[in-house]
Here is the input.
Amino acid sequence: MATNDVKPLVLVTGATGYIAGHCIRELLEHGYRVRGTVRSLRDPAKTEHLRRIASELGGSVELVEADLSSDRGWAEAVAGCTYVQHVASPFPPEVPKDENELIGPAVGGATRVLQACAATGTVKRVVMTSSVAAVVYGHPKGENVVHTEADWSVPEKCDPYPKSKTLAERAAWDLVAKLPPERRFELAVINPGFVIGPLLNADQGTSGELIRKLMMRDMPACPEIGFASVDVRDVALAHRLAMEHPEAAGNRYICAGDHIWVQDIAKVLAAEFNPRGYRVPTGKLPYAAMWVIAWFDKAVNLALTFVGRKEIVSSAKAQRELGWRMRPVRDSIIATAQTMIDQGIVPAR
Ligand code: NDP
Here is the structure.
């Protein structure tokens, strides 16, 4: 590309979010022009980190208002964009009373974003953030079965969050399949595991809560739950690769490493931070104790469903087709906690 060529404009939805912030950084680092949607521009503190990153990288981020629950703003948001990374979706730390609080914005929002892309005529490809939650739940495959992109969670057997992700991803594929030729654009989907890694601002998001609880010793011991985790920087990389690689069109990509138990995450944290004055617990929390704590702590209540479960997923397709690579999980765990200390979420010792 000649030096005076203008790089394409990319829209990132939910720019205030944990993953979206890293997607924006990844795009700016590679010279793209970036526009982000936020629900409201009224609180500049929620996007200050984006302006700082853009200025460090010599780029800029244009921010516009759009809510997944409303049609307003989406046509303007996608106007002139070549690519869209649709990252926004409700990801609350606890189960809502009404599942439609999640499903409505997840499905309706994906539909609004994709319809706006079809109408504008400039968008070539959308990369949507789904989840392994749209892959692994509700089908009895038994222990030690490796889940791939061919698997889909069964919505009727899912809790509200996995249900919202499964239905939103299904809706996206269905909508794109039915587009008339003159409105067609490509879709690729990223299905990340449990996302950890550095925080860009003091709003740690839902996935940071576990590591914060361990660092603060808010939990006396480690519940027997675990995840296939992935670093947020590697998730952002996957979004860019799925946007750029021609063969990614029409594909979903699982991005997650080996299953890791909370107790093993705690052991990494304890080895690094306990010599610095923290008291990260490394013992195992008996199920009965977890059940009692769940009465008072809604996040622990949510985790009860996952006790003893080991979901194994394969990222081989992303590695093979996109050349995607993951950094070691130890680096991600330590970086999460260290940035929590740097951001003042966890007190410095
Ligand atoms: P965050 O909570 O940090 O970000 C969610 C973003 O979605 C925020 O920007 C939020 O905006 C926006 N959002 C929520 N509801 C609406 C709405 N009604 N209208 C417009 N924007 C809305 O979560 P993550 O960054 O962790 O998650 C981002 C995506 O990645 C989600 O789709 C999530 O399902 C998916 N994911 C996350 C994983 C994880 O472990 N973190 C794992 C797998 C998938 P606001 O700031 O205004 O609330």
